Amino acid sequence: MQSQQPMKNITINKKEIDKFSKLASEWWDPEGKFKPLHKFNPVRLRYIKNTLMNKNMKPNSRPLKNVRILDIGCGGGLLCEPLTKLGAKVIGIDASEKNIKIAKAHAKKSKLKINYYCATPENFKFKSKFDVVLNMEIVEHVDNVDLFLNKSSKFLKKNGIMIIATLNKTLKSFIFAIVGAEYVLRWLPIGTHNWNMFVEPIDLINICKKNLLRLEDLKGVKFNVITREWKISNDTSVNYLAKFKKF
To answer: CATH number of 14-52+61-246: 3.40.50.150, 2.60.120.10, 3.40.30.10, 3.40.190.170?
Structure first.
């Protein structure tokens, strides 16, 4: 499947939005179509928590108290809710109206105060700046990654942190993330990912640099077939996490 040609001032890829909108009702089913993301959630949540916690801060039930976070491409709220429980003040945006409806309903059920909006970085209007912007498993689903990250960076205050989780564009990622995960193991619906839209770390770093974002950390994420869990690794050839600081 070929990606659509990027439009000048739009990052939305309609095919990608439609794809995830059709699956919206399954966001919170740990055994449903988003089961791999539920498995992946603990390692990315742990990375975010460890990144944002002050080294001198005593661990407690709300270590991210009052940290202002914007989760772009929040889906059904799988990250927004646990981050809110850790004390953060979270806003989630997503281009799919169905995803936002699911996220709002689940937050209400969980009795959590989270503001959700159906929006993209280029059309989201918000006056205040954020301490943290999250782009988790989203840049490989948008058109015009340059514009997407440019607009995303505008919401960060100086010295703010952007964390990006995505897929490297390698032969290994094609074999593992598409052939293996979609066609062989059936962890994901066929067509979930388009390898042509994957982003190499060097390209991501260069785009971010143009938007005053300096790389501070780059880690790979690997699946341990024995423990059946994801873990942080130095191997960035498939999944990777990147932390940037705005200067």
So the answer is: 3.40.50.150
Question: Which residues contact residue 134 at a Cβ distance below 8 angstroms, ignoring those fewer than 6 apart?
Answer: 48, 69, 70, 71, 72, 79, 162, 163
12-40 residue pLDDT tens: 999 999 999 999 999 999 999 999 999 99
Q: What is the pLDDT of residue 42?
A: 97
Among 84, 41, 86, 79, smallest CA distance to 60 is for 86
Tokens 């059936």 belong to residue:
186
| Per-residue pLDDT band at 228 (split at 50, 70, 90) | confident
Beta bridge partners of 89: 68
DSSP the chain: -PPPPPBTTB---HHHHHHHHTTGGGTT-TTSTTHHHHHHHHHHHHHHHHHHS-TTSPP-S-TTTT-EEEEET-TTTTTHHHHHHTT-EEEEEES-HHHHHHHHHHHHHTT---EEEE--TTT----S-EEEEEEES-GGGSS-HHHHHHHHHTTEEEEEEEEEEEE--SHHHIIIIIIIIIIIS-SS-TTS--GGG---HHHHHHHHHHTTEEEEEEEEEEEETTTTEEEEES--SSEEEEEEEE-
Assess whether pLDDT exceeds 60 at residue 73. yes
Strands 239-246 and 156-167: antiparallel
Of 135, 160, 91, 158, nearest to 241 by C-alpha is 135
Residue-range domain boundaries for the chain:
14-52+61-246
